[in-house]
Design brief:
alpha+beta, Immunoglobulin-like, ten-stranded mixed beta sheet, 35% strand, elongated
């Protein structure tokens, strides 16, 4: 009897869970990929017994579709062919029920994608109420971001500023020529933009202007405040009339450029802590997660309390989490009960809502305040609370609970974040979702709406790693020795970086296997900073990529390097250098010579070892003899010129009765001194180097040309 009751209970639970996800899975084609040891890739999806056909397309960089073929509904895989090392591609699969297209899936796959050393630019807009009391935590966040490859700037913003002036900060900071992500983190109660005249949750009393942080991220569209005139919403903030500072647009008026996220604990009296302490707690857990110190199993949980809605709101979970974790690691369950005791990296829950609650999940007080929810990246969806600028708002309060670091209102529309499976940050997927074409991705009502907001840090990634520790640097005569303690996650070695003074980080090594490194023969007078990161090949349901940890750093000033030698560029490879182009190094570099004796570094047939051809107007042996074409009738017996090398004076003894003109000339044929019948030439004002002294008889035009070296 006990076994029978247990079987019945399991059957009832199974049926309940299956019915809860039925519409979600009908609307979804949850995708994954399998790449074998020969780099052959096969696209796979969750089986749907009702499906009659699947159509597979490749997505181009411009988001156009290229049809690859179709399979019948009883097939749940498609061979894609070889995916080369380092390559990634994106695919879109649609599903038909009796010729009616009902479901879709999106995936980006990769095969050992290269390390991402630079992640982008980020500006943190700091509420001036938080800046001083949270100075330590904010500086730590900046360091963590920089150690993850971000270029970080900060500004302080008054919560009393108007949204137009706040946006001007971001417009001025934005670089349209930068080829990478550009993110904005709104830290604190940065002024909240409102826009539109929609009721995305379907409630008539909620039709009006909703929160619109996307206003800060969309920089080139036409945002107006002249046409909407709606005073009917029950909440005053949703009323929208011309000239009230709330914008007319319900749809984002252009492509979003900036990836905007918000961490804002203003007006959450349900919590015992004030907004400063809640923000401090958030920054603390953000730091712990980024450093890989709060380990989470890679799995997701889904609870859909709108099971009867044909829209299938939970497809937000299935479309995204299966490409991240695989079908076997995404499960239907009780959101609040499970996450109170068990860890799930990602989660989704939806239910009928209010500004402060979601049916079947809980309220701000009963869920977020009273429980420490054990999830990091979550989606929640329900009526009203997607409009989050309200006291004790349910969506916004999630970030104050447990380990939660991001939350978003996903269902209208459905967000697309599978890019995170291959190491990308959530802000990139947020902007992708905002810009996604409804006709292309079938995102439900609200696609392209101004209400789409990310609550949380947009630079967070799915797979943090433990960093190496205790990087130590020692300098001896311009040579720097580094040592560090191992990271438990460094399965594929380490990346080593160097930065000189305030310059850019450069990569010195990838996949380096030791725990010590020597950087030798450095120029004195500079501060050298070093950073070491652990490397790991991550395997996910979307393929594989080389992940790296946050870095550990050290810096040291090089005061002197006695081993440096000056070398001269040898452009023609004849073994003789050009005195005008030098480098200091400890050993002879390729392309350089240890002398500066070449008089033509573009021709390897002209150098001091060459044989001079008389009277061809070319000085092949670099002694100055053919600088001009003439017979050299004056000889060393006629003139004594000394010393050579010279310092400040060149002395000349004329043993003839001739009147002589002395011309002191640079190698580029500039006349520096010209004298007649003098016994010396003062060359003290000229730098060390090679010069030409031309002695010419005034009447007979007889010549003597000497190569003079100044060396003090």
């Amino acid at each position: 009897m006990q076994r029978l009751l247990l079987f019945i209970a399991v059957l009832i639970t199974s049926n309940t869970l299956n019915s809860q996800a039925a519409n979600d899975l009908k609307k979804s084609v949850p995708l994954s990929v399998e790449i074998n040891s020969s780099d052959f890739s096969t696209l796979k999806w969750m089986n749907d017994v009702m499906a009659t056909e699947y159509t597979i397309s490749e997505i181009s960089s411009t988001q156009s579709l290229s049809n690859l073929g179709s399979v019948t509904g009883d097939v749940n895989q498609f061979d894609l062919g070889t995916l080369s090392y380092g390559d990634s591609k994106s695919y879109f699969v649609s599903k038909d029920y009796e010729n009616l297209q009902v479901g879709h899936g999106l995936i980006t796959i990769g095969n050992q994608i290269a390390i991402q050393h630079s992640r982008g630019r980020c500006i943190i807009a700091i509420d001036d109420v938080l800046a001083m009391p949270l100075d330590f935590e904010i500086n730590r966040l900046v360091i963590d971001m920089e150690m993850d490859g971000w270029e970080v700037d900060t500004i302080q913003v008054s919560r009393d500023a108007d949204v137009v002036s706040v946006k001007s900060y971001f417009s001025d900071w934005y670089d349209p020529n930068y080829n990478g992500s550009q993110a904005v983190l709104l830290l604190g109660h940065i002024p909240v933009p409102y826009s539109g005249n929609s009721n995305y949750d379907g409630h008539a009393d909620h039709q009006g202007a909703w929160v619109a942080d996307v206003y800060y991220g969309e920089l080139n569209g036409n945002w107006t405040d002249v046409s909407i005139n709606n005073t009917s919403p029950s909440r005053a903030a949703n009323k929208n009339i011309p000239g009230d500072g709330k914008f007319d647009q319900s749809q984002i008026p252009g492509a979003v450029e900036l990836e905007v996220g918000r961490v804002d604990f203003y007006d959450l009296p349900a919590f015992a802590e004030d907004e400063i302490e809640l923000t401090r707690k958030y920054l603390d857990k953000n730091h712990v997660f980024r450093r890989g110190l709060n380990v989470y199993p890679r799995r997701a949980i889904v609870e859909n309390n709108f099971a009867n809605f044909d829209e299938g709101f939970g497809q937000s979970a299935w479309r995204n989490y299966v490409p991240m974790f695989g079908e076997e690691n995404v499960e239907v369950g009780n959101y609040d009960a499970t996450l109170t005791t068990e860890k799930y990296l990602c989660s989704y829950a939806c239910g009928s809502g209010s500004y402060t609650s979601a049916g079947g999940i809980g309220s701000t007080s009963s869920l977020w305040v009273e429980k420490e929810i054990k999830t990091v990246f979550t989606f929640t969806f329900g009526s009203y609370f997607g409009d989050w600028d309200v006291s004790n708002n349910f969506l916004r309060s999630a970030l104050a609970s447990g380990d939660v670091l991001t939350n978003a209102w996903s269902g209208r529309p459905v967000w697309q974040i599978p890019h995170m499976a291959l190491g990308n940050h959530i802000g990139l997927s947020h902007r992708f979702s905002q810009n996604a074409d409804q006709a292309f991705f079938t995102l439900n009502f609200g696609s392209g709406g101004c209400h789409m907001s990310l609550l949380g840090d947009p630079t967070l990634r799915l797979h943090p790693m433990v960093s190496p520790e205790n990087l130590v640097s020692e300098e001896t005569d311009g040579n720097i020795a580094l040592e560090w303690e191992a990271s438990i996650d460094a399965n594929n070695g380490y990346s080593i970086y160097r930065k000189v003074d305030d310059g850019e980080w450069e990569v010195l090594e990838e996949f380096y296997q030791d725990l010590s490194y020597n950087d030798d023969c450095l120029l004195p007078g500079f501060t050298y900073a070093y950073m070491v990161k652990a490397i790991k090949l991550e395997q996910t349901a979307s393929g594989s990529y080389f992940n790296n940890s946050l870095g550990v750093t050290a810096e040291i000033f090089v005061d002197d390097n006695p081993n440096l030698v000056t070398f001269y560029v040898d452009g023609d490879g004849d073994g003789f250098g050009n005195e005008l182009i030098t480098i200091e190094d400890c050993t002879l570099p390729d392309g350089y010579a240890d002398n500066n004796l070449d008089c033509n570094d573009d021709d390897d047939s002209i150098n001091p070892d060459a044989t001079d051809i008389p009277n061809n107007d070319i000085d092949e042996d670099c002694d100055g003899a053919d600088m001009i074409s003439a017979l050299q009738n004056l000889s060393d017996e006629d003139l004594k010129i000394y010393p050579n090398p010279a310092t400040d004076f060149i002395w000349i003894e004329n043993k003839t009765d001739l009147d002589l003109v002395y011309s002191f000339i640079s190698l580029d044929n500039k006349l520096l001194i010209e004298q007649v019948n003098d016994s010396y030439i003062n060359v003290s004002n000229f730098p060390n180097g090679i010069y030409i002294l031309k002695v010419k008889a005034l009447k007979s035009q007889e010549l003597l040309i000497k190569r003079i070296v100044l060396n003090r």
